């Protein structure tokens, strides 16, 4: 179980860092893509320097899709990721990087117990991958400055990209993942340590005390 891990065996999961997010058909608004994608690159560099395997995930959708359509520039990996080495490349069609892919098997074969998630979007493919990994028994980390969100408006209401990003991070930290910056993650990698992940109870207790 993740709680018993004393010295983590990590893999970095780089989720859907594709051109459609960079001013394309689904532009990341908060934090700005130009800032967060640099942190994705930094995380990949840290992982490579410390012998942590890097798995790059790419959303593959049909030619008729509105985003990430096969054969389009928007579906291609962003240069920040494409220019760096990786250990495994996975195509997916669902939000979670585990659904319909060999990701779990690949990680188990390498005795990975901790996955670090970066990429896009905070509230969709990252959230899905984080929750999926936690249910599989992995310890999970999410780098909050290496991901981002878009605004939504639908039958349930509206929310800004900043609201969606912030609330998604709070939810993940409360139960599903340790949420931290790329710089702080680098320090944990260097020290061979795991960052703190909260509990539902403690997160709620703090909120009630503040209220």
UniProtKB/TrEMBL annotation:
Entry annotated with the keyword Hydrolase: yes
Isochorismatase-like domain span: 11-184
CDD domains: nicotinamidase_related
Entry's Gene Ontology molecular function annotations: hydrolase activity
Hydrolase is among the record's keywords: yes
Listed name of the protein: Cysteine hydrolase
Organism: Devosia oryziradicis
Keyword tags: Hydrolase
